[in-house]
Amino acid sequence: MNRFKKMIKSRVFLLFLVLIAFIYLNNSSFFIKQPSREPLLLAHRGLAQTFTMEGITNETCTAERIYEPDHPYLENTIPSMEAAFQSGADIIEFDIKPTKDGQFAVFHDWTLDCRTNMEGVTKDYTMEELKKMDIGYGYTADNGKTYPFRGKGVGLMPSLEEVLTHFPEHSFLIHIKSNDSKEGEQLAQFLSQLPAKRLSQLTVYGGDEPIAALKENLPDIRVMSKSTMKSCLLPYIGLGWTGYVPSACEHTELHIPEKIAPWLWGWSNKFLNRMDKVDARVIVVGGNGSDFSSGFDQPEDIKRLPENYTGGIWTNRIDKIAPLYQNE
User: Fold this and answer.
1) Using one digit for the tens of pLDDT, what is the confidence trace for 6-17?
2) Where would I find the GP-PDE domain in this sequence (predicted)?
């Protein structure tokens, strides 16, 4: 009887070792071909003024805490996007807010009070009225002693239509800055007028409700929300060790915080390979997920990425990151 028990235990132990070996080998990069491509560079809000992230909250006026400017560009403007693409961006992220006359303004903040010389929200004004505002009014690097962009931002707030017209062949990540399903429906109506090729160059992310409404009206567009991320990643975390990729991952976008990424099965090469097969775009962002605006903004930040990383990189300083890959 004791001999039988020992035999059972040895077989269980052997099976356990085989399982561990399978999991290890199935999630390593030993048997996959390394892609020859460079990482996909995503410029957050174009080429923007950056600021300290210490103690930041949703109520923080980030224009009041910028670093001393070393370039002349303001976020979410056509000049800043031109500079970002010229620097080497593959994709640019920008934010949209609805206007009084049924358009979308390209603007980040919930209210106009922080950056501009006006108060209220974009929906209180027509696009023509928003054009008259100074979007550089509130920027300061010295606690209000000087305002280096005051008077220089008049007329720089573009509409969504202007951006897409100005850059007819470029790729964008469009951020719906709300959880209002009506904004998703409004955006779907606008984007539905575009040809299929142009839609394939656009991705939209935002709150669960507007993204669900957008996807319902435009099933083929690439989207991302907390809900789509969970639908993809939670089952993958549970079963991805087998090589299983949930159908919810197909043709979506995943923003993976760098501190969480190593816990994903097969990170990084095997994971990227699996997501490539289902047309899921992977963008790694800075930090632990507490603030998805954190990026890889200095050359030393890139050293935190896995060797030979080929996925997407979120950056607030495309001018400093793109040259690292252009010179290779």
Assistant:
1) 667 777 777 778
2) 59-325
